[in-house]
Specification:
heterodimer, A: mainly alpha, 0% strand, disordered N terminus, B: mainly alpha, 75% helix, flat
């Protein structure tokens, strides 16, 4: 695909716009994290600081469920670190989009989250402005959702009743589908999926995703 | 420092480091072959793993529940070339309805 800059090249605001429907879902998830964190005895400030610095939904919700069931801090840390280890391969996949001084690359990289990353890749080639525009909107949605959740979450109802946990995998599926046209990508996805499915039953959540990335080694095959 | 703040601090630092791995170590560089071919496959592979773990993942087990119906509805919408917002709304609504009636 040609990557010439043109009048129709995406702008940061295109990244914001494309993320709006996803941001609504993320906002509700942030609110449910806030509610669960409060119920788990994390107080008001700690959940907000966590959303501002960690910005990764599944790991944060895992922490609340472990702390709420009187699990140890160590258990919560191990679970969250395993869940977020996927961000190492994810960030490597978009590394070439980040330029400039180290501090700037470090700051911008914090806007990488599953949804901004997936939206940024939907043209088949990752786009920096979509990634950062979408990431910024999702960051604000996650943080403001958390704030509403810790302060007034009980008024919002259960996010499961809204079916939000079924919306996220469908979103990722929609963004995956166009990438499967290339035979080599489809083969790697199949192999990665098989690894993930096999490991879901025997390893803690998070590990299957990291292990599945080994399927990328199919890229070393010649031809295809 | 209380246990809660230890968790917030350690998880925050670890996650920031994971997210910065690529941009800090490789930022701005075009990767040499064959590494570039490997990295190019990260997106489809990781997306597939995300779909599966979020659709049927549980605590060390496969969990088949209303999420699967939602993903099925989303897949049908994707096949019909529905726009992204519609896919997300259809999947959420289907998940919610199936959960309500089962």
């Amino acid at each position: 695909m040609p990557s010439v800059a043109s009048a129709s090249a995406p702008r940061y605001r295109d990244g914001v716009r494309v993320a709006v429907p996803v941001a609504a879902t993320v906002w509700f998830f942030g609110a449910s994290f806030g509610l669960l964190a409060r119920a788990a005895g994390m107080g008001v400030i700690a959940p907000l600081v966590m959303s501002a610095t960690t910005f990764a939904g599944s790991a944060q919700i895992a922490v609340t469920s472990i702390l709420a069931t009187s699990g140890s801090a160590a258990a919560a840390i191990v679970a969250a670190v395993l869940l977020n280890a996927r961000y190492a391969p994810i960030s490597i996949s978009v590394a070439r989009l980040f330029r400039g001084p180290r501090l700037r690359r470090l700051a911008e990289s914090q806007l990488i989250v599953d949804e901004s990353w997936a939206l940024a890749g939907r043209g088949g080639r990752f786009n920096r402005r979509i990634l950062l525009g979408a990431g910024l909107l999702l960051y604000l949605a996650w943080l403001s959702g958390t704030a509403v959740g810790v302060l007034a979450g009980h008024a919002l109802g259960n996010p499961k009743d809204l079916g939000l946990d079924g919306a996220f995998p469908a979103l990722f599926l929609a963004l995956l589908a166009p990438q499967l046209r290339a035979p080599r990508a489809a083969a790697a996805a199949l192999a990665g999926g098989a690894i993930a499915l096999a490991l879901i039953q025997v390893t803690p959540a998070g590990t299957p995703i990291v292990a599945a990335s080994a399927a990328c080694l199919l890229g070393l095959r010649r031809g295809g | 420092m209380s246990a809660v703040w230890v968790v917030v601090f350690v998880v925050g630092v670890a996650t920031a480091a994971f997210k910065a791995t690529g941009p800090l170590l490789l930022g701005g560089r075009e990767l040499p072959e064959p590494l570039a071919s490997v990295v190019a496959l990260l997106a489809p592979v990781l997306l597939t793993a995300l779909v599966l773990t979020q659709a049927v993942g549980g605590d060390n087990e496969l969990v088949l529940d209303a999420r699967l119906a939602g993903v099925g509805a989303g897949a049908a919408a994707v096949a019909a070339r529905a726009p992204l917002p519609l896919v997300v709304v259809l999947a959420a609504a289907t998940t919610a309805v199936v959960r309500l009636i089962t």
